[in-house]
Write a structure and sequence with these properties.
The protein is an alpha+beta fold and about 110 residues long. It has helices at about 60-70, 80-90, 90-100, and strands at about 5-10, 15-20, 35-40, 55-60, 75. It is about 25% helix and about 30% strand. The longest helix is centred in the C-terminal third of the chain and has 11 residues, at about 90-100. Bound molecules: zinc ion. The site of zinc ion has 7 residues, from strand 4.
Length: about 110
Amino acid sequence: MSLVITLKDSPGAPGRSSPTIICDVCEEEIKTAGEGMYEWVSEAEVDGRGRATVYFAHTGDCSWESKRRGRSSSIPLVALPAYLLRNLGCSLEESEESADNMGKPL
Ligand SMILES: [Zn+2]
């Protein structure tokens, strides 16, 4: 499940589509970057193309449970946007401008 679109209400804009990260352990929304991790199985278990599935977990008990399930590598969720922007060759300013053109971000 992990990354999904949810419909959220904001003043004057009900039911806006909003990318949302769901914890793969408890299946609740991770509401702030500081309360989550992104995790994957160790490098020895990536597929033949050097790719591993990304899982999300709340810090604390959910992250410990995720590690028990074999996801031994993890990084704080707050770092993910920077890594993605670098790997996509996109600046934060470009990303914000595009999001603003799509409508008020939620
Ligand atoms: Zn959780």
